[in-house]
Write a structure and sequence with these properties.
By secondary structure, the chain is α+β, with helices and mostly antiparallel strands. It has a single domain, classed as Ribosomal protein S6/Translation elongation factor EF1B (Alpha-Beta Plaits, 2-Layer Sandwich). 32% of the residues lie in helices and 31% in strands. The chain has four helices and four strands; from the N terminus they run βαββαβαα. A four-stranded antiparallel beta sheet has the order 2-3-1-4. The longest helix has 18 residues. It is extended, with a radius of gyration of 20 Å. The protein starts with a strand and ends with a helix.
Amino acid sequence: MAKYELLYTLAAKYTEEEIAVVKEKITAELTKLGLSISRNEEIGKIKLGYPMKHVRHGHYVLVVFESDPASLKQVNEYLRLHNEILRHQITHFDPAVKPIGQLADPEVRIDYRATENVPAPVIGTAPAPVGPAMTAEELDKRLEALEEDITKAL
């Protein structure tokens, strides 16, 4: 039996209690399909990269399990047809990879050049564009307005 990692996204419209109920229902069905679940944790509510089914935020849940490769097709089919799940992804579990919670932390910086023999990128000497200072909140508002304009245009 191989070890796999499942990451699925639930819509943020649910409350914490509803998320727990949906998560338990999915876990029960996965165990019925023959999965041996070793870890089942909620990563948290994160803004999606793009709207899915008119949803902008989602609750991410990470499940680590053991299963034979033949049953993955049934698991994929169940997750694909589940109404509450926006997206899901199953990958092979690699214990050497950092947990996703650490990668989501903005204070953690990953330097890939330290592990690989890649030369440092050459940074040009062009001056930075000068413009009015903008706060992060103002930038978020402007980006959301642009997203809405683009989606209305489509």
